[in-house]
Amino acid sequence: MSKIAIIGAGISGLFMANLFKKNPNYQITIFDKNKTINIEEGYGIQLSVNSVKLLNKIEFNRFQNNKKYHPGKINFYSNNISNKICHLNISDFNNEYCKYTTLKRSELINFLKKDLGEKIKTDHDISKIDQKNQLIRLTFANNQTYECDYLIISDGVFSKSKNLISNTKIQPRYNNTLAIRGMISNSSNVDYKNISLFLGSDFHHVIYPVSSEKDLNFIAIMKYNLSKEEQTNYKLFSDDNFIKKILEKVPKEISEFIGEIKELKIFPVFVSDDFFKTNNNNIHLIGDAFFAFPPSFAQGASQSIESAYELFKSIENNTERDFFKKRVNKTKMVNYRSKFNQFVFHLSNPASKYLRNIFLKRLVKNKKFLESYLGKIYKN
Ligand SMILES: Cc1cc2nc3c(=O)[nH]c(=O)nc-3n(C[C@H](O)[C@H](O)[C@H](O)COP(=O)(O)OP(=O)(O)OC[C@H]3O[C@@H](n4cnc5c(N)ncnc54)[C@H](O)[C@@H]3O)c2cc1C
Hints:
It is built from twelve helices and 18 strands. It has 380 residues and is an alpha/beta fold.
């Protein structure tokens, strides 16, 4: 029996553990630095059909229906709800079993961890990774050690494990944007059935339902320069004066209903610039540790799930060598679209915006374009 250690109990690590759990040839243990698994009550997540199909392999289809939602359309607006540009039928990519899904992140995490029990070891902050012959030895900040045959690194965008095994320090890059997120309920003027995407200047925001009970998720991405010190000063983002300074910069249409947003949180968005290939065929990266995208294509979680599934299959079939190359190809496609979306969503010149809106109206109806831009990503 092979022993598999997974570092990080986020979406990718937990999904990976669920896949291996079914195979008696592997013994899995998942380590997380936090004292409890962070479920951040409330906030939403969008899952496209590519990840829903894979989640169904661990019976996500049986997961309570009132806890998830299937929006039919993405409505594009210019600034506010009275200026609709066009809509995209996101449900065109659905089939009977796999539907574009939105839900609370906490519900997804609860679903993923519910059958893992003792396999999850919390309060285990990785501090050392030694590789000797075929054996991998892990040491944690609490002085505990663990030996395994395979190591799967899924400790997120700031991956400490990646730095422990590489000779050079690998840091993600600040994406020059802040994310403002929270929950809305009982708001007039909001579409409870679909995803609403509002395009502003250097700013876009998305509102979508996260259950069939009229809970709505709010997420805005705002261009914002931060100094090097500010980027690493996490305390700044809980400082009321700093938050006030940021909120003064949000467009008028948003500032009018900012008071209605509950559990409002602001944080800097970090992305990856490059890939890191390990020189040990038994050590692999998945999820944001493999590569973190700008959030404008809502593919981070879906790609985390996809990367976990591809690696699981490669290990089962002894084809681990192919995993990295295949994953890089798909990641590049998603990263290009994520960056392009952000550029187009944030245009500020009136003439460019006017042209963008004309193109957008045509493209959302162009089947060939949609198949290539979205369909290629939603296939796995
Ligand atoms: C603003 C924003 C909105 C987003 N919206 C969407 C969306 O709508 N749809 C979508 O698909 N994606 C979205 N994403 C992306 C998505 O959230 C991430 O891609 C996804 O959560 C990554 O999962 P992960 O498991 O790789 O990492 P994480 O969720 O970051 O999990 C990493 C885990 O590792 C643990 N860990 C960290 N360091 C250590 C250590 N030293 N030792 C042990 N454990 C450690 C952490 O505690 C954590 O539990 C969004 C991202 C942002 C920034």
